[in-house]
Amino acid sequence: MKAKYFNKSADEKFFFSALKERVNNKLQHKNVSYGDNRFWYKGLFWTLICYSSYLLLFLNSNKTVFWLLYVMFQLSGLLIGFSFGHDASHNTAFRNKKANAVLHFFSFLTVGIDPLLWGLRHIRSHHLYANVEGSDIDIDKNPFLRLSPTHPWKPKHRYQAYYAPFVYMFTLLHSVFMSDWVYLFSDEYDWMKKGISKINLYVRFILYKAGYFSLVLIFPILYTDFSWGFVVLTFITASAFTSLVFIIMLVGTHFFDGADYPQPEGEFLEHTWAVHQLHTSCDWDADKSWARFLSGGSNCHAAHHLFPNICHTNYSEINKIIEETAKEFKQPYHHKTLFEMMFSHFKHLNKMGNPKA
Q: What is the pLDDT of residues 220-250, one digit of tens each?
């Protein structure tokens, strides 16, 4: 990891101080650092949908119904991760860190991405250095897409706006079968795993993967009336559909037309940490309750990056404050509808397909 230092601009620091004061005043009579009733009701709703669908898999003998139930199981499992797991990784579900770790582990059980490794890279890399090449793992070079002007251009990138959806269909499977193993065993990511014992990492990894594969493949193969080939095909296609939903909700929050991809001058980045988050994040339908319900607050990306210690069910009360304060202090605030954000993302892909970009 290439450690960077943020600018110490007095004006930008004053902006964030004013923003924090206004947010604190708005939320001063609420316990916002931990999950409230809205948080638990929503998470338990998706948990009920997920495991009810899963149990029904074993009581069904129709292939179409099995596939539909499996998709519902996978999709609602992803939404458990959005609703419970994301907050638990930031220790904003419970007061107790161990309780958050347990919830985090089980919230990711149907997703397949190791929760501990994901949490480490999410907090130690992405939240600190969003969109900074060499520091934010989420923007690392990949063999398929050019997502940043800092990535090398190849002729195939001219067409990436057209083939990207097919790449995105396999994002989750790539994480399950490749990325997790690289993050665990590669010395390149030792900085990310610093302070966590290797035994802890390996034991949790093995337990998690064993639980995941048992749940999504082994049990359905052993205890349903369908062939192993049909179960595996269902797993792959349902994962592809779930992966697309995952990408639709998240990829445009940082990879959109107009986003910054800052590179340091020497060791210093252009902006303070808070303003850096605004330059690199995009909200979508932040004022819509259905969007917050589905995305676990990930649609309120500026709020989440600026106030990761606040449970996501409170973002609805601070989004307007962020927008108005940013405007007052002449700082950027990117907000689009979901459709506009995805259009902007593909416009960005098209732009990155140009060797001169």
A: 999 999 999 999 999 999 999 999 999 999 9
Q: Which of 335, 340, 337, 303 is nearest to 321 (CA)?
A: 303
Give CA–CA dist 208/211, Å, rounded.
Answer: 5
Q: Which residues contact 147 (CB under 8 A, 6 or more apart)?
A: 139, 255, 348, 349, 352
Model confidence over 264-304: pLDDT tens digits?
887 889 999 999 999 999 999 999 999 999 999 999 999 99
Could you tell me the CA-to-CA distances from 153 to 109, 137, 275 in Å, in that order?
Answer: 37, 19, 29
Supply the pTM of this predicted model: 0.93
CA angle 217, 214, 167 (to 5 degrees): 50
Torsion of CA 332, 343, 283, 106, to 10 degrees: -140
Q: Where are the domains of the chain?
A: 10-352
Per DSSP bridges, beta strands 282-284 and 334-336 are parallel
| Pair of tokens at residue 90 | 């930031």
